[in-house]
């Protein structure tokens, strides 16, 4: 798998070339030198979206550490057991 990196300007001027490159692997499109978008073939997209089927796989995905997640603490109310 080849990874291609092109600027937004080059992408706008050569969409066909970017689509051809996406057949060989992901194409990173940069904006001011920083990755902004990724172009994938449809087959690669399907493969990526179908492999994340459970929570353990989703939590192990790259970039998960960059996601902020602060859920509120769970409140569990208790009540006495009725043994009658």
UniProtKB/TrEMBL annotation:
It holds the Pfam family PhdYeFM_antitox. InterPro entries: Antitoxin_Phd/YefM, YefM-like_sf. Signal peptide: none annotated. Antitoxin component of a type II toxin-antitoxin (TA) system. Belongs to the phD/YefM antitoxin family. This is Antitoxin. It comes from Duganella zoogloeoides.
């Amino acid at each position: 798998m080849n990874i291609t990196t092109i600027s937004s300007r080059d992408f706008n001027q050569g969409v066909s070339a970017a689509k051809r490159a996406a057949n060989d692997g992901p194409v990173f499109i940069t904006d001011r030198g920083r990755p902004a978008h990724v172009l994938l073939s449809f087959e690669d997209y399907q493969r990526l979206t179908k492999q994340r089927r459970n929570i353990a796989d989703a939590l192990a995905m790259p970039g998960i550490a960059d996601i902020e997640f602060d859920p509120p603490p769970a409140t569990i109310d208790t009540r006495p057991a009725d043994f009658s």
